[in-house]
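Table S2 (continued). Query chain:
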Amino acid sequence: MKKTYTTIQGDMWDSISYKIYGDEKYMGYLMQSNLELLDIFIFPAGTVLTVPELGIEIDNKVPAWR
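Corresponding output:
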C-alpha cells in the first residue's frame, strides 16, 4: 500500500518533507513521486501526495573503501 500525505493550506515541498522525513533535503523524493504537481509552490488544503520510501542514503564523506 502506498503512503500518502494530504496537504494543509500553505504547505510547501520543503515543509512537507520536514514533516514526513524530518529533513527538507528529501523533498526531491516527494517531487519525483508527484510530477503532476510540480507547478504548485504553495499547496491548497486537500491535495493528496504520494509519499515514497526513502532509499539508502550514501555518506559521501567517507571513502568507499572504508
